[in-house]
Amino acid sequence: MEFAELIKTPRADNAVLHRPFHPTVEGTLCLTGHHLIFSSRRQDNEEELWLLHSNIDCIEKRFLGSLGSIVIKCKDLRIIQLDIPGMEECLNIASSIEALSTLDSVTLMYPFFYRPMFEIVEDGWSAFLPEKEFEVLNSVVSCFLSFILSICIYVRRSLRLRVLRLCFLIWDYLFPQVMMRSSQPLTGTNGRRCKEDEKLVNATLRPGKRGYIIDTRSLNAAQQARAKGGGFEQEVYYPQWRRIHRCIERFNILQESLIKLVEACNDQSHNMDRWLSKLEASNWMTYIKEILTAACLAAQCIDREGASVLVHGTEGTDSTLQVTSLAQIILDPDCRTIQGFESLLVREWLQAGHPFQQRCAQSAYSNSKQKLEAPVFLLFLDCVWQILHQFPCSFEFNEHFLVTLFEHAYASQFGTFLGNNENERSKLKLQQKTMSLWSWVNQPKELKNFQNPLFEANSLVIWPSVAPQSLQLWEGVFLRWNRPSRFLDEAEEEMKKIVDYNRFLQDKVNSMRKQIMEKETEDRIDRMDKMDRMDKMDEMDEMDEMDEMQENP
Amino acid sequence: MEHIRTTKVEHVKLLDRFSTSNKSLTGTLYLTATHLLFIDANQRETWILHHHIAAVEKLPLTTSGCPLVIQCKNFRIVHFVVPRERDCHDIYNSLLQLSKTAKYEDLYAFSYNPKQNESEQVKGWQLIDLAEEYKRMGVPNDYWQLSDANRDYKICETYPRELYVPRTASKPIIVGSSKFRSKGRFPVLSYYHKDKKAAICRCSQPLSGFSARCLEDEHMLQAISKANPSNRYMYVMDTRPKLNAMANRAAGKGYENEDNYSNIRFQFVGIENIHVMRSSLQKLLEVSGTKGLSVNDFLSGLENSGWLRHIKAVLDAAVFLVKAVAVESASVLVHCSDGWDRTSQVCSLGALLLDSYYRTIKGFMVLIEKDWISFGHKFSDRCCQLDGDPKEISPVFTQFLESVWNLTEQFPQAFEYNEAFLLQIHEHVHSCQFGNFLGNCQKEREELKLKEKTYSLWPFLLDEQKKYQNPLYKPSFSPNLTLLEPNTVSFNFKFWRNMYHQFDRSMHPRQSVYDLIMDMSEQNKQLEEDIKQLEAKIKQKSGQSDAVLLKERQQSAHPAPVMLKTPPCFKKDQPLIPLNDAVRTIEGSNAADNRYSEFMEELSKAEPAIVSLEYGVARMTC
């Protein structure tokens, strides 16, 4: 195996592990093909740390005499330090980690080697196949099928105009308003038009109704895109549509924002002014507000105006997905369940071709400048968290679920987030060769950790507030490693206990009442039988009395 | 009342203060002797106490009427549009008169009648007994005693009558020391830590100037130091920034010279003065009240206001104090300039961190009564209860409550009370509805005969205790006298939305975990009761045998209930205490409540026959 070549020193004894808010641990460090393993090897209290190499964002080496230290910065934003005695060993280990954490071949990634220790109840790969989802739709309103088919005729020809894909999201079955996403139209500088595209887009309109196009770029950016052959829908050719521009940032600007934010959160010495100005300078919260606002706008067009909505940016694989998926969370209670959210991610992110591998290759600590990284998915999760925070009872999942998704998008033993689109995924044969994250998450045992104890299905549309005073820093991700969380965790536990106890008591009361009732009916039947047998003479009198009772209740 | 010219105005509009499209409710405005009342078309009532009004402003006339903006001390801001200017003018003038009171006797507390009889009123005032509280702390003891020096407010007018001082501090020392302290506020005991035998003492700045010294004052500090057998040195905390303290020297005041006092460790902690705090809050409110605020403007506004920096400074000072007491077992003397603002903040927060008693509902009342009311925090001046010097107004007490709120966020299980409790106290500090916070010091309160003429707030809060209880509170979390060690890294301090936007519903989370948990734990208690009853019933039922039958038959002059009525438990079974629907339903789940809704309103407005997209584009792009 070629990993062996990369591991120069597989093991170092007497290493010391430093983690913030934990006591330091002495133990042995081992390197394997995919993991960095630290074990305290103490009899009384064995502590082990397993870290995926792919979770390592960057490392730093420091030397003090012959004692070397390696600072490991992870993609999940954690920072740990390992002290390794011996300069050579330390250097070897550092270079091994560096090599193993930057493997460029996807097929060498851990998901291809991971063998699950759990029994697969339901295979996550086949849980959300498009055909299956589609089936549900079709079975609901069959007449809508023909509508879709009629559209499909246009799709082919329309593709000449659009860069990438066109997808329909049927929102309301009875009143067909649809939310669509696409890429930009290729109008170019000379304003090309495509009749098929116009027909296709118009086919989604209800008679007499207008539609809205939400362009996730500023008008300026959209105009500039024409020079590169892209562009936006011309009013003349799409007279029934109103175009709205909402500026959502992309790519390296987002990546820089994340780097700045994490830097600000990691520095404990900042005074208040510096902290606030750093938080402001990162612009992270601004982006959250922008995305949420655009999503709310899209949702509003559908819910309030009853209009169809088309969302697109440039490629239709980043900001477009943030907007369409958040709009669905706002509108559709199903998307707020665990299954529904998973299905939303599969539909709106994986199948829609969000390039996870490119976007999540590096996280906040990487120094290497690459253009394709961007925390688009993390921003989306943050927006979901903001809504969850404002509607804490309307989601079946909890914050931990979102954090877990964030971790797995960046480094995972599962194949779900590998590859950049469906095409790549099928070429990699992920379905055959790797495990799906959903297979693991959807086990009843694991599911318990992701469930929100306060969940009560809420069929309403949930409109979050986007005022700056209502938005909050997602502490569960950004301050997770920077402060002791004991008291908050305990409070969370206590809350769960109260909810569980409440359920227990309710069940008990119910069952006791049932018991009493059964007993009473039993007794009554018995008694009445006996009474009947024992005495038929009094019957007439009793009847009289009963009549009286009825008269004066 | 002679000030009220118009008592009722119809068709008044109440604007949403954050809406850019002038969304409004129409209703009727009533002016009473104590309140301004607005009832909208849905019969929802908005009550505004005259004493809560901080400022009334009449804006220039518009086509829809005359706008009237009212700012309240509890951070409510209402924006009315009165159709006729004359009415608006009348109301404006009346409110100006009514919101400014010249005499204590005109305050609401003197006319407020909660239907309590006299003995209840007296009992209410006796609810908090400070002598009892000092006893709980463990004084008087071998080192500390009650001094009668100030029994007639002769030495210090702004202190309470009962003061605790070291046993070794004789009357001449006290008198001498008080002459050397600003406003005569000499060092006295504020909190005694039984286990560490360390004391938190408070006083005002010494009149040291550039070189003056006072032997009695030096003796006084020595006496405090000696009263702590476990540590030979003591800390003197000057809660002001060093620069301010130095400037005071020119005015013949200043701070302790370490050379003149034996075994003291002197420390500045840098909390700004009341004027800085006042303008800081002003800036904060300006920012948070802006329409269409962007995130960056909000954050930079928050930074520029310095508000959170001040909150952090207060809490940092308290943490310093607590470390000295808990880690070094040292006694600490805290002072600022006059020893009634910053000193109150630091001493009370320090005690709160040290002693879990103050984290209970009753204990918190005692803490406020002790460190704020009795030691003469000038509530009347700071909260502008009477028409007075606007330079005396300052949100010192609000900062204290906000610091406590920050602690409750960090330690969700350590406090018996919840946010609503803090908000309610804040409400009543300004409402002048109860006598507790009236006046500037105990002497003034006695002269006003508040205990006979007004009511105490505390029994009313205790009566509705359920509303203020923290369902997650765990007394075992902090067995007696245990220490809270808050993390004061900047990112732990958050903007207190529920205080500064308490009345702006659209900004709050639509569902509250807290309320839900509160209802659940309440319901749990009820269910436990039910189970007990049901258990008894089942037992009784199974104990019944056929022997009873005969008896029952004889009594069956009323067999009807058996046949006609369903047994009571059957009826009960169906509703099964619906999980408080009010909480579950999502109030304000309504696009119109949110800021982005304005885009839609503009869109629908621009719905002309001819599709002029240019218009739409120009409006819609960002």
Automatic annotation (TrEMBL), chain A:
Superkingdom to which the source organism belongs: Eukaryota
Assigned keywords, A-Z: Acetylation, Cell membrane, Cell projection, Coiled coil, Cytoplasm, Endoplasmic reticulum, Membrane
Major subcellular location class: membrane
Family per similarity comment: Belongs to the protein-tyrosine phosphatase family. Non-receptor class myotubularin subfamily.
GO molecular function, one term: protein phosphatase binding
Compartments reported by the entry: Cell projection, Ruffle membrane; Cytoplasm, Perinuclear region; Endoplasmic reticulum
Domain Myotubularin phosphatase: 178-478
KW Isomerase (keyword) present: no
Any GO BP annotation: phosphatidylinositol dephosphorylation
CDD domains the UniProt entry points to: PH-GRAM_MTMR9 (cd13211), PTP-MTMR9 (cd14536)
Name the UniProt record assigns to this protein: Myotubularin-related protein 9
Example of a GO cellular component annotation carried by this entry: ruffle membrane
Ranges of compositional bias, category Basic and acidic residues: 515-537
Region (Disordered): 515-553
Pfam families cross-referenced by the UniProt entry: Myotub-related, PH-GRAM_MTMR6-like
Topology term for the membrane: Peripheral membrane protein
Biased composition regions of type Acidic residues, renumbered to the chain: 538-553
PANTHER family, alphabetized: MYOTUBULARIN-RELATED (PTHR10807), MYOTUBULARIN-RELATED PROTEIN 9 (PTHR10807:SF56)
Alphabetized Gene3D superfamilies for the sequence: Pleckstrin-homology domain (PH domain)/Phosphotyrosine-binding domain (PTB)
From TrEMBL, chain B:
A Pfam family per the record: PH-GRAM_MTMR6-like
Coiled-coil region(s): 510-544
Cellular component GO terms held in the UniProt record: cytoplasm; nuclear envelope
Keyword Hydrolase: yes
All copies of domain Myotubularin phosphatase, residue ranges: 124-500
Molecular function via GO: phosphatidylinositol-3,5-bisphosphate phosphatase activity; phosphatidylinositol-3-phosphate phosphatase activity
Positions that bind substrate: N273, I274, C336, S337, D338, G339, W340, D341, R342
Superkingdom: Eukaryota
SUPFAM superfamilies: (Phosphotyrosine protein) phosphatases II (SSF52799), PH domain-like (SSF50729)
An example Gene Ontology biological process: phosphatidylinositol dephosphorylation
Assigned keywords, A-Z: Coiled coil, Hydrolase, Lipid metabolism
TM ranges: none
Catalytic-site annotation from UniProt: C336 (phosphocysteine intermediate)
Family the UniProt entry places it in: Belongs to the protein-tyrosine phosphatase family. Non-receptor class myotubularin subfamily.
Protein name per Swiss-Prot or TrEMBL: Myotubularin related protein 6
Source organism phylogeny: Eukaryota, Metazoa, Chordata, Craniata, Vertebrata
Name of the encoding gene: MTMR6
